[in-house]
């Protein structure tokens, strides 16, 4: 056991499509081994045995150089292409192996074996919903416009740089949800109540909170030494906004330690908001 | 075999984290069975045996109602929680089973068994790169500003509504790449050459092409009956821009049939651009 000590290992993600699935699953598994430094190569669009042979050469060259078997995660639908990849000097982590046949058995229907289906535009309705939602998020970013709030599924509110924009973007791109976001400024906070435009859509509001230390750090990168980035200013704004969230009964989340993905899925869970895509 | 005929099946994605991995892999696999209508329930943040028991009840109720075993994809790190889920009346598609132990054996190191690691902010550098890139994409969307083009990794160009913005957003959010985008307007196209601001950054340019029929459809949704959405206008703009791409030697991609994910991964492949995150 390499206890505690850091070591490296090469990893290949091989796919007949975008490789997003192989990458997502691979990263999930590798995250369980934080003391290993994984050197990742992503190889998408391998759809022929010929292309697979070249990948095998690359994997073998890597093994030859490093003296340790590279890890190979693949999501290849075509068994012939998969068989070629499996000839490499590597630890094969075949994602689809077993699962597809288990599903075939259970569903009593044959898989299409069509490659690149995962991220293909198979459902144009869903696809359009996502694109429309992205444009909606951009058009309604940062309080730029408020006249479309009746069409929003949710309106994120928070102080400047609390994570509203990236969260809005993720929710729209991934789930097709129409998200507006509105920054509560010092003026709004001085009033100690919601601006009218938000009061009219109170049921759609969701608040983002963040710890003052983190907010100071983020704002300092933007405007170092400014009042905007000072601890006292950040703390004041955050106390005021938390007061509004609580007194107005607006659901909110402290996002300090969270990634965009976590914030977004938590928001869905808390609000019960449904995805427009699945 | 249910050949050709459409039938339905319930699916559960269960996770101790965001459920994004379970969902991504599950959708990949289910995409192989397009004649089945899958009714999906996503259940994130199941981190205790108690919470898992409630999920088991929900799965069993579903089985009871439908008379067919639901499919359950799970990415649970804790074996005890997983064991509880596995008691449900369901077809268990345990994503991590086997893979984690295979990795443990090969890496000769124990998994942390910490839950929710996949989409946690484990690498703050990478995380910051993504957030910064999203803000960069928004600030440099649609030719809004051009003075930061020296800091861009890539500048997407194309006619209005050819998919530049969603692609820029995806590349930034997913891969931390700094993407600007610039729409070539009729005036630019009349000149039959690149505007100066783009000529100064020619090596960063990447073109998006789209078929006229598709462009007409997209523009019609926005401004039905307008000259902007007419076939002749779309065709004229596309011919002109393709001419510029070719004469200027700008790499480009026809994105008509592609999803944002496909466009984005193809662009990385064609340009050899490196992700800032992995």
Automatic annotation (TrEMBL), chains A, B:
Task: Show the catalytic activity.
Answer: [pyruvate, water dikinase]-phosphate + phosphate + H(+) = [pyruvate, water dikinase] + diphosphate; [pyruvate, water dikinase] + ADP = [pyruvate, water dikinase]-phosphate + AMP + H(+)
Which EC number(s) does the record attach to this protein?
Answer: 2.7.11.33, 2.7.4.28
Pfam families membership: Kinase-PPPase (PF03618)
Q: What class of enzyme is it?
A: transferase
Record-linked InterPro entries:
Kinase-pyrophosphorylase, PSRP
Positions with a binding annotation for ADP: 158-165
GO MF terms held by the record: ADP binding; ATP binding; phosphotransferase activity, phosphate group as acceptor; protein serine/threonine kinase activity
Keywords on this record?
Kinase, Nucleotide-binding, Serine/threonine-protein kinase, Transferase
Q: Family assignment? A: Belongs to the pyruvate, phosphate/water dikinase regulatory protein family. PSRP subfamily.
Biological role:
Bifunctional serine/threonine kinase and phosphorylase involved in the regulation of the phosphoenolpyruvate synthase (PEPS) by catalyzing its phosphorylation/dephosphorylation.
Which HAMAP family does the UniProt entry name for this protein?
PSRP (MF_01062)
Q: Spell out the protein name for this chain.
A: Putative phosphoenolpyruvate synthase regulatory protein
Which species does this protein come from? Answer: Acinetobacter apis
